[in-house]
Structures are given as structure tokens and as C-alpha cells.
Prior knowledge:
The complex is a heterotrimer. By secondary structure, chain A is mainly α. Chain A has helices at 14-44, 54-57, 60-85, 89-119, 128-161, 165-197. Chain A has six helices and no strands. Chain A is elongated. Chain A starts with 13 loop residues before the first helix and ends with a helix. Chain B folds into two domains: 1-56; 60-94. In chain B, 73% of the residues lie in helices and 0% in strands. The N and C termini of chain B lie far apart (62 Å). Chain B is mostly helical. Chain B has three helices and no strands. Chain B is flat. By secondary structure, chain C is mainly α. Chain C is 67% helix and 1% strand. Chain C has a two-stranded antiparallel ribbon. Chain C is globular. The chains are: A mainly alpha, B mainly alpha, C mainly alpha.
Amino acid sequence: MKIDHSVPLEYSTEENKNRIFGFWVFLGAEIVMFSTLFAVYFTLWNRTGNGPTAKEIFEIGPVLIETFLLLTSSFTIGLAINSMRQGLMKATMGFFAVTLLLGLGFLGVEIYEFVTYVNEGATLQTNAFMSSLFTLLGLHGAHVTLGLVWGGGLMLQMKREGFTPDTANKSFIFSLYWHFLDVVWIFIFSFVYLKGLM
Amino acid sequence: MKKLFPLQHVMGYVSSLILSVVALTVLFFDMSFGMQMTVLLVCAIIQMSVQLFVFMHIGETGSKTSLYTNIAYALFVGIVTIFGTLFTMIWGYQ
Amino acid sequence: MKWDEFFVTGEPMIYGAMVSIVLVSIAIVVGLTYFKKWGYLWREWLTTVDHKKIGIMYIISALIMLFRGGVDGLLMRAQLAVPENGLLDSQHYNEIFTTHGVIMILFMAMPFIIGLMNVVVPLQIGARDVAFPRLNAVSFWLFFAGAMLFNISFVIGGSPDAGWTAYFPLSSIEFSPTVGNNYYSIALQIAGLGTLMTGVNFIVTILKMRAPGMTLMRMPMFTWSILVTSVIIVFAFPVLTIALLLMMLDRQFGSQFFTMANGGMDMLWANLFWVWGHPEVYIVILPAFGIFSEVISTFSRKNLYGYKSMVFSMVIISILSFVVWAHHFYTMGHGAMVNGFFSVTTMAIAIPTGIKIFNWLFTMQKGRIEFTTPMLYALAFIPIFTIGGVTGVMLAMASADYQYHNTMFLVAHFHYTLIPGTVFGVLSGMYYWFPKLFGFRLNDKQGKLAFWVIMTSFNVTFLPLFFLGLNGMTRRMYTYSAETGFGPLNLLASIGSVGLAVGFAILVYNIYWSFRYAPRENNGDPWNARTLEWSTPSPVPHYNFAKMPNIENRDAFWFAKKSGKSLYTEEYSDIHMPNNSGQPFILGAIFMFFGFFMVFNWWVGAVIGALGIFIMMIVRSFERDHGHYIPVKEVVATEQRLRGEQV
Lengths: 198, 94, 647
């Protein structure tokens, strides 16, 4: 394994560069995947049958908390990578931990939101609008959940091995994933919640 | 502190918060539907760019042309899927 | 799920299938034990990450699926041979045309193409493996798990019966209450994940792992076609992922996407299916275009005419392929604006495709054409595919399509594109690259005989369907009365299908005979070809290239042969190679069990399967595997043995 020291550790080998590039390509596929769900949502969102409409069930409060938590976590994972590039282990671990805690908080609020919907009688089975809403939010939430497990695992690996081409590469890829989830959330925030409440 | 919180990242974060607040105004000010959608779209696109360029460092490697092409192609297919579906299933449906 | 519905009962043919599945399984187990091949199987195949072996496994699976799908086709033709035939009942007929379509597209055409690209692309660009060898193995085992899961539906639980397009509301739980369509959504999902990863893998491989000096515009045309195909895979398959997810939610979790009450929209399924489905058509046809470009150029002894326009037309096709999908359901009832738009975009695709046809013709013009088996397939492809293309333009006209829609005319059209395009393409590629993998050519005489029988029978089978369609015979009808007058042409088509079966039997015999008796050639370049893969010894050593080639132009190997200059100027050195791993196989097996429990709504088993999948992912994340080095001494020894040269 040849290590190139002129670039950040995460790019330092041929395999590492390929992995980062490959993950970008995968994110391209993820863009299309979420676009398809948005297409389904926009087609079905005002087909509510006998069930509730968007205006009736959306509440802006929890959504703003979720947005704030996720935006902040995107900021802190960026800072984690910034610290990693300077070789600051403690700061990196700290920012990683904050990111994952914020993610956990986001997930908590989202679950609370889902429980509220179900208590109001709006479930996956209620109407086409609720089906598409739960699926879009649920798939994003599932990505966040997977990210929590992934990020936790990476913290363990960094703790055990320090900054190596492997751990740095994985952490950088994780940061790409996490920023991407934030981008998806921005579109959910704008075109699901704000548009629904308009 | 400067080491841990570089200016670019802080600016990026602050701007994304501001843009979210700007997007929120569609709920509180009286605007036409077209105006509302424009505000949402512009804010979302700027926010996406902040993430891509500032946080994700899309332009930092030698393969940036491929990366831009990749994202552009994905956005093309995504937009075609969204608007094509609306076109066939709703707007163009008799 | 009632237990008495678990196994499919009441059909003698299915009992026969069960018995034969059990017998074949026992025969495989006994054979492996008797010849002591378990260790060999595990070390050399199940755990391999070598792109060539993975490619071979893909192609073998594809050939097996070709026969499964082919038997389905034969049964359909047997049923339709005479009016009022009672060979199959309507339910059985529905299941058979559904599995025929799904298997031929997703489990025959796709893996055959992915197999060929696995074998050829790294060799054509001068790479020692793909970018992510382990992921490549995962792709294969996911595909295999999906294919096996789909195939057991035949005897356990019942096959899907709503057509390969599985249109709602017919495929909803209300109208298709058996588990058949659960198999459809879950097996395709698993196989589709594998395909998506293959797409990512090959984009990175082609863009990042080319030999020094091989710029994009110096790549062989087949590699170009695979790059474009991979791009389409990466951006089209996520749509299928979502569509299948929504189908599963609708059928098994009571959601309301495609229902007819509570706001659901049944045609939304058709829309999503074809947003993926039309690019999928180009995923299976573009690699065939690439194969024909290589074959025609090699056997005309000329460079490919209009290289840049070939590349350009493929890129245009890849973009246009995403904006034509609604032509599959013109008759849904959307307005003139929608139909007009999609009519125009669809016809526009004929332009880049036409450019390619002319380029092939000009490549052959004044060439010294050699009529080998692969070249025969390429030559037959051009006129037959053009018939398919021209009828495609007829179907593209929205107003006329009301007449053709869902008739045998359409069936004839897409068989006229997919068989000369994809099937002839992969067969041509198989004959062409076979010596690279095994060190000998398939017997040419038998190959030509198989070609003539297949090509003639294909036309006898499918040409009558155009006329049947125009006379009003709709697709998917399981029988018809004598008064319709459909009888004679249907009988002719059925006779043709027997011919096709004979042709493929000859092809199998050709492979068998050649393995036993064909002369072994100590020659890496039996066809006197042009591209880089032929500069390696045959069969290729597992590291592909002992030294990295240095590329200075298109068809670099051809010019190296002409000028006598070697492509390989480096010194020998240690070669870094990836390690084998059993994890991809285990992951595939877990996915299959997970899928099986999901199909039957057995949640305990499904949760355990899902946990197993996550554990495998965590194990992989914590693993550190940096491959191994082949010492230079061993490389030199291997090269001397294979090339017989003094180093």
C-alpha cells in the first residue's frame, strides 16, 4: 500500500481515492432515490381520501427543532473533519460525539412526531398522502439511524487505531453521507412542511 | 479556537440558519404562490450549494469534473423524474 | 399463510419440476462429495474476488436462466399452437409469461451483460481488477440470491402472475392474494441492489483505473458502452428500488400508494416502473452495441468508423432514455400534450441509433471481412434489429399506438430488438472472448450451424406475431377460438420456437464438444484483434497484466503489432492483489433467507435475517484487509510458463 503524504490522510492511497469517488457516485444514486420519493409525494400529497390533510397535521414547532438539530450536526461533522485534517484526535472525537448526539436528538423528535400522527389516527394505512409522507420521512430517518450506528462504529475504530489511512477515509466518507442527509432534510423542510403549511 | 472553528465553516453554518429563517417567512408574509415557491427554491438551492462546496469539499480533488458531472446528471434525472411524473400524472392528465 | 398453500400443488408439470429440483440438488451434492470438490468450490469460486471468475459465474447463471426462461417461452408457444388448447390453464399461463419476462430481462440479459463486462473491461483498460473487488463479489451473490429466490416461487408459494410489469391494481393484494408478487418485489429488490453496486463499481473502475496513457477517447468502444451503461444503471435503478419498496409496502403493510381508494393512484406504479424500465432497455442494449463494435472492427480488419460519433450517440441515448418512458402507456388517457411530447422524444432516439447503424456499415465497407461465428451474429444483428427499430418508430406515434398497444405486434417488436440486439450481442461476445478465458476457441462449424438455426428460427417464430398483432390478437391471452383465424400463424410461430430450442441445444453441444476436443491454442490473440485484452496470454493469469502497458493511441495493441514496438516497457515488480473472502457469499445467503421470510410475512425470521445483514456489515467495517503481494519471482515464472518467452 503506497501512502502519499502530500494530500490529507483520507486521500493518501489509491484505494482511498477510489472509495471517496465511488461514494460520490453512490450519493448520485441516492439523489435519484430521494427524488423518486419526492415525485411520489408531490403526486399524492393532496390526495387525502377520508384522512387528514397536510395543513391539519403539520406543526411547525417540532419541525424547526429537527431542522436546527440537523443543520448543527452537519456543521459539527464538518468541524470534525477539519480537526481530523490537523491531527487533533480529542477535538475530532468530541465533534463526532456531538454530531451523533444531535442526530439522536433529531431522531427522538421525529419519533415523537410520528407518534403524534398515529395518535391523531393518521397512520401509514390512512391515505395516499400519509403513506407517501411516512415513507419519505421514514426512509430519511432510517438513513439517520444507520448513520448513528455507522458513526458510533467509526468512533470505536478511531479510538483503537488512531488516525490511519483507513479510519480517516471512513470518517471522511461518513461526513459526506451526513452532509447529504442534511441536504435531503432541507428539501423535506421546504417542500414538505413549509409548502404543506402554506 | 480558530483551529477548531474555521471562519468558512462558521459562515456556512450561519448562512444555512439564516436561509432556513428566510424560507420560514413564506408562512408569515402575504405572497403569491409563485413568489412563495421561488423563495423556497432559491433558499434550498443555496443551502445545498453551501453543503456541497463548503462542507463536502466537492471541488478539492483532481476528479472534480467527474464529480460535478455526476451530481449534475443525478439532478437531471431527479428533476426529470419529479416534473415528468407530475406532467404525466397530474398536469397533463385529462 | 395456510400450510397447505405452501407448496404449489395440483399440476403434474410442477410435481415434475419439484422432483427434478430435488434430484439435481442431490446429484450436485453427491458429485461434489464423490470427487472431493467442496474445498475447490469454496476456495476457487465461492470466495473469489477475481473479476474473471465472477464474470464466468455470472455467465453460467445467465445461461441456466436462459434455459429456465426458454422453457417458459416454449410452454407459451405450445399452449398457443392450436386454438382452444388445454395444455395450460389461465392461471398457469399467467405465471409463465410473467416469469418468462422477468427472468429473461433481469436474470438472463442483465447477468450475461454484467458477466461479459466483468471479464472484459478490466482487461481492456489495463487494470488488474475492478476498483472494489470485494463489492463486486457482493454484487454477484446478491444477484444470485435474488435469482434463486425468484425461481423457488415456482414450487413454493406460487409464481407472480401479473405480468413482468406487475401493473396495479392487478398486482395488489386484493387481486393477487398469493405470495407470488411478494416474490417479485423482494427478489427483484435484492438483485437490483447488486446491480446498482455493479454500476458504481464500474464507473469508478473505468474512470480511475485505466492504464497510463489511455485517455477516455482512446478507450475501446465496448468499455465506452459499459461506462455509459453503468451511468444509466446508477441513475435508473434507484427508481426501481423505490417502486418495489412501495409495492411491498402496499401489499404487505397496507399502505395506499397504488390502491383505488383513499387517494391511491394505480397508474403511478406504471409511471415509476417505466421511469426505470425504459432506461433498463438501454442498459441491456448498449453493451451489445459495444460488443458489435469490437467484433465488426476486428473481423473487418479496419478501425471503427466514426469513433467519436459512436461515443457521442451513446451519451445522447443515455440522456434521451430518461425522457421517453410515458410511451409505454399512451393509452392511459393523458392529454395530447403529454403524448405528443413523449412521441417526439421517442422518435428522437432513432437518430443516434441510426448513426450507429451507419457507422457499423461504413466500418465494414472495403474491409476484408472474415465470417467467423461472432461476426455472423453481428452481421445478422444489423438488418433484423433495424426491423425492430422501424416498428419501434411506428409504436412511438401516439395516435397509431392506440391500434398496436398490448397486441402481439408489440410483442414481436420488442423481441425483434432484444433478441438480435441483446441475445445475439452476448452470444457474439461469448464466442469472441471465450478463448481469452479458456485458451481455446469454440468450434466454428458447430457455432455457425447453431447460428443459422437460431437466426432462421427466430424469424419464423416472431415475424408471424407482427401480423397476428395487426389482426387483433392481444398479448397475454391464454387461448383463442378457431373462428379468430389466428390458428395458422400461431402454429407457424410455435414451430419456429421448436427450432430455437434446437438451435440452443446445438449451442450447448458446441460448448461441451469444444471443452472436450477443441485444440488448445498457445496464443493470446487468436482472432488477430485490436484491443488491449488480446495482448495478455490466454487463459489470463489472475493478475491480468504482469507489467503495466503504456498506451499511445486507440487500438494500441494493433499498432504495437504493426510497428513491432512492445506496449510493455516497465520492469517486472511485485503485484498487489486483493484477498479472497467468504463474506460476500455468506451475505448473499443471509439475504436470501431474509427475503424468503419477508415474502411469507414471517417477521421473526425476517428480523433475524436483517440482524444478520447488519452484523455482516459491521464485521466488514471492523475488518482490515489490505490484500497481498505476488512476489516478482512468481510473476516472472508464471509469465515464462504462459508466454514461453525469455525474461
